[in-house]
Amino acid sequence: MQSVPAKRLATRLRQFMKDTGTTQNQAAAALHMSQSAFSRRYLGHVELRASEVAALASLLGIEVTDLYGDSAVSA
Q: Where is the secretion signal located (predicted)?
C-alpha cells in the first residue's frame, strides 16, 4: 500500500516532469535504474529515497523542497 506522503510526492513529481518535458526514461537514467523501477516510484507505489529526490530535483532544475510542497516539515 502506498503512503499518503509517497502519493503526494509522486503527484508533484509527475507535474514537474510534465512541466519540464522530462521523460520517465530520462529520470530513470539519472537515477541509474530501469524505467520499470522508476515507474513504481513515479506512481507512488515505492517511496523515493532522499538521494533520489535530490537527483530528481537537480534534473528538473528545482529545489528539493519544491517536490515536497506544502507537506514539507520545517525543523
A: none
Task: Show Cβ contacts of residue 73 under 8 Å, excluding neighbours closer than 6 positions.
Answer: none
C-alpha cell at 34: 530501469
User: ∠ CA 62-28-39 to the nearest 5 degrees?
Assistant: 100
pLDDT in tens, 8-19: 999 999 999 999
Please name each of the domains of the chain with its CATH number: 4-69 (1.10.260.40)
pTM of the model: 0.86
